[in-house]
Amino acid sequence: MNILIWNCWGALNATFKNVVIDLVQLHSLAIMIVIETKVGDNRAKEIASQLPFDGAIVSSTIGLICGLWLLWDSSRVEIAKLSYTEHEIHVTISCSHTQPWLLSIVCANPRYAEQRLLWENLSTVASFHSFPWVIAGDFNEVLLNEDKFGGRNVNINRALKFQKCLNNYKMIDIGFSGPRYTLSNLRPLSQLI
Asked: Which parts of the sequence belong to the Endonuclease/exonuclease/phosphatase domain (predicted)?
């Protein structure tokens, strides 16, 4: 089963739909997770209905913050929604001949107080299941200065609290493929963050 997680930074771009169609065809996607869409509610549902998936859960946004979409092909996977907020979606996933597993998609608020709420919600989810668990998305927090480019140094107290969260849920960073830094904020490529 192929799953794609994309931090797209806006789904209103004119090319978004065509890129999704190409990605689905190229990678035979059963599930696509799109974070930081900056589009929620009815507009998100409208756009999602035009994509090559027949299942969708879309979160609300807070202004232009976050926006999570979980899209899937129901002929290949069965997804049951457990809960969701503006910053997280929790589901169980089943497909033929495999054990069900839990998927949590996160797009944390950059404010620490809001991040702590997300971490507490993860604790609640963790206490109610024994399935294998995948957590994907953007925690909007870094552990090391090497995890970011430029700007302020990492706040060591926040990093330690985030590390404690990761340890509590036995999370493992599986890394990435592609460029180490991808956020441009309209800066030249040499200054990606």
From this structure: 6-143
